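Need anthocyanidin 3-O-glucosyltransferase's 3D structure for a figure. Predict it.
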Amino acid sequence: MSSFISVYGSYPSAFEMLLAQFDNIDKADWVLCNTVYELEQELIVSLSKIWPMKTVGPTIPSMYLDKQLPDDEDYGFSIFKPNNKLCMNWLDNKPKSSVIYVSFGSMACLGSDQMEELCYGWKNSDHYFLWVVRASEEEKFPPSFDPSDEKGLVVSWCPQLEVLNHESVGCFVTHCGWNSMLEALSLGVPMVAMPQWTDQGTNAKYI
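Structure prediction for anthocyanidin 3-O-glucosyltransferase:
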């Protein structure tokens, strides 16, 4: 487990939860994995020799894949209050493939130095940027960074599937959380990997 959760003290509750889940895995009749066989064929074949395993991914709403279920447009829940119009209206006014979308998930905490370097990068980039930053992380912005700059939009939440599916988005800077990776792969968005913890380093190697 130490190779999976590299820094125990950072997220002890997550460590305990994952430990309990893996401790019970031998009791399961089936292990359903949100992945695609063609993407991880070697691993699936190996793990299927240990557990009865089935791939059921990508578990993404139908309207972003085969469009067979017209009402299946989102995951049906969110831990954040949606504000779809702000992001989408902003993207609607940007040229095709001109926006860098940046999101590091709902748990990752970047260091102040990392935040400063990212702010410097976006400010000096030739592209627009849409950056999802939790309110608790905004205090790490350097004084010289203006979140309201016309070049970028900083929000605390956005509808990620809609954003990745938008034609103005040309790149996704991601923490390489598995769900985010599957979404970007399914929608054909190029990724820049910036993994933070757990499986994200391994995921980054895949892309």
